[in-house]
Design goal:
Blueprint lengths: L1 E2 L1 H10 L3 H6 L5 H8 L6 H11 L8 E2 L2
Antiparallel strand pairs: 1-2
Length: 65
């Protein structure tokens, strides 16, 4: 199972809100919904989030059994 808990921590540390992702960085609200509900997202989205947050994929996702 994939968890996006690290994403929320990284966003808090960087001072970036979901509103900023949608309005300033053009992340679709459906993508935010998918993240909040632990649904799948594309690797391209992970790459975009990494660019925005200046982090690595490990700062966005973690795998749980």
């Amino acid at each position: 199972m994939v968890s996006y808990a690290p994403l929320w921590n990284t966003m808090e540390q960087k001072g970036i809100t979901t509103y900023a992702l949608i309005k300033k960085h053009n992340i679709q609200s459906k993508t935010i919904y998918n993240l909040k509900h632990e649904k799948n997202i594309s690797t391209a989205t992970i790459e975009t989030l990494c660019d925005i947050l200046e982090c690595t994929p490990n700062d966005i996702i973690e795998f749980k059994k």
